[in-house]
What we know:
Blueprint (H helix, E strand, L loop, with lengths): L1 H24 L10 H4 L4 H4 L6 E8 L2 E3 L2 E4 L5 E7 L5 E4 L1 H5 L1 E8 L3 E3 L6 E4 L4 E9 L3 E6 L11 E6 L1
Parallel strand pairs: 1-4, 3-11
Antiparallel strand pairs: 1-2, 4-9, 5-8, 6-7, 6-9, 10-11
Amino acid sequence: MAWEIGAVRWKVALALAAVLVAGCHGAAAPHAPASASEWHGNGAMGAADWSKQLDVTITIRDYGYLPRELRLRAGQPYRLTLVNYGSVPHYFVAPEFLASVATRKVEVREQAEIKAPVFTSFELRPRGGSLDVYLVPLRPGTYRAYCHVKDHLAMGVEGRIVVE
Length: 164
């Protein structure tokens, strides 16, 4: 019971930290949207048909992301599920990618829903920590994703996201 309360507190703290970090970027960050309409990709959220949302998953293990390369289509709504099956916490760091999408919300299932104009990274707890990012990619390109904890990047905990 104490562990469950601690886990809920941790998830709430993570959600609040994500909102605060995203809010700190404000207009000063070069990749942050200047307005709510830009945040929604000049209508990407309103134009997105969420009934046609595609579900994709990135699995994080102690020695890599699966898939190593994820291909998405600009303008298509997605639920991107991040799951850490590793034995230690891992990050999903992808600031350029996350700045190039319109984000509807981030959700820790049955725990929290976070809304912010821009995210840069997510930390996932070991052994099944997960969250869902509801997004619409806006800009084609190739984007790097990696874990910045200790030597995880050197051990191969990285991948790339290609938006076509």
